[in-house]
Each structure stands twice: as structure tokens, then as C-alpha cells.
Amino acid sequence: MRRREFLAVTAATAFLPGCAGRRWPASRAEECCPRPQGGPGYASPKAAMAGPRERLLYTTAIYTGTKVQEPDYLATVDVDPASPTYSQVVHRLPMPRVGDELHHFGWNTCSSCHGDAGKVRRYMVLPGLKSGRIHVVDTMNPHRPTLHTVIEPEEVARKVNLSAPHTVHCLADGTVMISMLGDREGYGPGGFLALDDRFDILGRWERDANGMAYNYDFWYQPRHNVMVSSEWAAPRTYVGGFEPKDVEAGKYGSQLHFWDWSARRLVKTVDLGPTGMIPLEVRFHHDPDSSHGYAGAALSSTMWHWHRRSGDWAVEKVIAVDPVKVEGWPFPVPGLITDLVVSMDDRFLYFSNWLHGDIRQYDITDPGRPRLVGRVWCGGLIGKTAEVRGKPLVGGPQMLQLSLDGRRLYVTNSLLSTWDNQFYPQIAEQGSYLIQVDCDTQRGGLTMNNNFFVDFGAEPAGPARAHEMRYPGGDCTSDIFG
């Protein structure tokens, strides 16, 4: 079915009572749009924390880079302890073609649009990092999402000369923005793709990107008129695996970029230097009045804190994870910080050390002085692995997603197919895990939940890799407050 036909069909389909005044079965209310009134999401982080507990979780499941010649798919996982299918994949939505490498994904709207009752959080945008295809998924039935449309990479290349879609965020005006890591030939620096609310290409978001060497993640804070973006590498560099010589050759990033949000111009670049190599995920505080945020430099295994000071943006290193000597490795193994998440109340920072195998919890009540208060082991290379339901955890903790109330941390272990195959080849043979870690939100502390374990090694078509996670009602890494 073509895009316009999809739109015609869905325009005639009913929604939920709380969603723009349309009708839907009341049993799906909390899963679709858990809010009493207004637009999508929540009016504030405090309101989000008081929302209903997540009952479903979406995660990308990837066959790219394995022996299974099947399309990647979106897995719907039951995370309701009262459900008979708790801790199980209850639906799989395959993509149309093989080889996408589904990666990070996001919503068409979020809490940034809460003031607009005409907007509904209904569509997820799932980019294929390797293929360049951008899939739009309809979650009108949250248990059984369907494919809405696909934007082909040739159209993106022709119209905006971009490739390798990565981070997806919605904007308050209904625009969907995607960070793109390369040009049509796979070279940096890439840029930012803008889609309208019908998922047609508007063009490039940025007007002046002078100074950006590479691209990766981004987060904006509208009340401070700022966006922060980070750097990984050009697709031609990372796609075949990690080569240390590429770092020495300057083919990996080390910079954070501060943008004038309204003018869409890069106004300040901060080079983190040799102790800030490959800054990946960036997260602002959820409080829209706060200027504080964090970036994790993966290769250097350091955490960086930024904030506005005396009218300018200041950046400082606040955490360093020391490398560890491992038998058989020619050099000390870095922790490799690959993901981080900030709790909705801005009190705790969590990050994963993919190679070491631990997840850390820091109290960031004083944002510039994080204090370690919790730690749990989930695999890794340094011999401190763990078991869940009697099964050893293969690989290291990677993607993180926190419940809105901050009490449950969900974890998957796949980074990128070629990098997985290089550092943890067992993942391709045994599949990923999806686990839950319980978080003490009073004093701090992390505990493995042995009642929850999704084994992606037991999938019907063969072992799959699990990556990014989202909830139907929004989460701590996709919702931005205006």
C-alpha cells in the first residue's frame, strides 16, 4: 500500500477518548496516551513520574550481521507483572527488506507537543542505520503495531544528500528531526533531516554547520534556545568494525556542538581532547529550566557535564572509568560507555560500560559532582558476569531505558552488528538478552530482577540482537519538555 493510501485508511480510523477527542477501546487508554487531558505526553517531568506504569515495551530486534537472512523487526514485549505473557515477546513486526540494522528510533510527537490537543503520539520512526531506509510504524493498536510507510534512502540522498539515519526526536511544531551520520557517499559530517507531520521530507534542519566534523546524537532544550549534538564517525569508518588506527588518523570524533536552536546555527564547539574520544549519547536534564546535561565519551570511558555559566556553555569531565588489564588483550580494556539515561526527576544518572560489563548509578543531586551509589554486573569481558534464571549473560550491557518513576531499568546488549561480531561474537550465535534491573530511588542501589528475562536467542527465526527500547506512553530518553 502506498503512503497516500495508508493516510486515507488511517484518517478514517478511530482513536482513543483522550487523544484529540477521537474514540478508541477504553482498555487501550493507558498504553496509548497515558494522560488525562492536553496533547501527547505530560505537562511536566513530575506529571510523567506520576503516570501509569509501563505495560508494553518496544525494542528493535536485528538480524543484520547474523547468519539469519530475515528482516529486522520491531518486538513488542509484555512488561506487566500481572499479565500471563509477562516477560515475553507478544508481537513481531518485520520490516519489508533484509539488512536495515534497525537502531535508535523515536516518536512523531512527545511531551514537547503536550500543549497541542490536536497532536497524538501514534507513529514511531525506525531508521535503518545501514540501509538508510526510514520506517514509520503505526501503534494505533499498541499490542500489534503495523507498518505505515517507508522513506527510501534514494529519496533522502536525492533531496538532501544525507545517509545513515540515527537519533529521532519530535519537535513542538510537529516536525520529526533525525540526525544523519553521513552524506550519500558515506562521508562526514552528515547533518539533520526534517520531516513534516505526514512524513514527507522538508529538507535539512541546519542552516549553518560550520565546525561539525561528524554527527551522532542530539538533544534540545527550548527554554535555553540550545541544542547539543555529539560525534561518532563517518559511516565509511564505523560500518566495517572498529580499527584503532582510525582513531589515530582522526577518523573518530571528540567534539560537542552547541547550536542556536531558533537560528539553526552551530555557535560553539568544544573539543574534549584525548580523554573525550567518541562522545556518543547526550542527555539534558528533564527540567526544561535546567541548563545541565551529560555526554558519555565511549572510547575514553569518561562522562562530561555541561551547563550554562555566565552566559556561555561550560563543559567539564566529571567521571572517568579506568581501563582494566584482561588476559589476551594487547592493551588495557576500556569500559566503553555506550549509553546513559537520566531519571525523570534529574536525581540519578545511569550508564553502561559495554566492555567491562557493569551498569552504574550516580546521584547527581549536585550535577557537577556525581556520586556513585549503585552498580550491577551484566556480562562483559573482565570476568564479573551474572546469571538470570540460570542463564549466563552474554556480551555486555548496552542500551538502557528507565521507567518514568525511575524504579525499573531495562537493558539490552547489542551495540552494532559489526562491533558485536568483533568484541562479542557469541551474541550472533546466542542472541541478545533483555533484562530488568530494580533501582533504589531513595538511597541508591541496583539489583537484578530474576523474574524478568527475555531471551532473544529463542526467537522463531533464530537468534536476534535487541537494541533500542521505547514505551507506548513515552520514556526518559525520548520525551523533551517545552
- Regions with little confidence, pLDDT below 50 for 5+ residues: 1-36
Q: Specify the number of helices.
A: 8
CATH topology: Methylamine Dehydrogenase, Chain H
Portion in strands: 35-45%
Provide the CATH superfamily: YVTN repeat-like/Quinoprotein amine dehydrogenase
Instruction: Average the pLDDT over all residues and give the rounded result.
Output: 92
CATH architecture: 7 Propeller
> How would you sum up the global shape?
globular
Helix content: under 10%
Any idea what the radius of gyration is? 21 Å
Q: Kindly report the spatial arrangement of strands forming the biggest sheet.
A: 3-2-1-30
Helix/strand structural class: mainly beta
Question: Any idea how many domains?
Answer: 1
Number of strands: 30
Q: The biggest beta sheet, please?
A: 4 strands, antiparallel
Please give the alpha-carbon distance between the first and last residues: 36 Å
CATH class type: Mainly Beta
Key structural traits:
single chain, 482 residues, mainly beta, Methylamine Dehydrogenase, Chain H, four-stranded antiparallel β-sheet, 8 helices, 30 strands, globular, disordered N terminus
Overview of the molecule:
The protein has 482 residues and is mostly beta strands. It has one domain (3-470): Methylamine Dehydrogenase, Chain H. It is built from 8 helices and 30 strands. It has helices at 3-11, 29-32, 45-49, 153-160, 235-238, 244-248, 417-423, 426-430, and strands spanning 56-62, 73-78, 89-94, 106-107, 123-127, 134-138, 146-151, 163-170, 176-182, 191-195, 201-204, 218-221, 226-229, 255-260, 265-271, 279-284, 293-297, 302-309, 312-320, 337-342, 348-353, 358-363, 371-377, 387-388, 391-392, 400-402, 408-412, 433-439, 446-455, 465-470. The longest helix has 9 residues, at 3-11. Mean pLDDT is 92; it is low at 1-36.
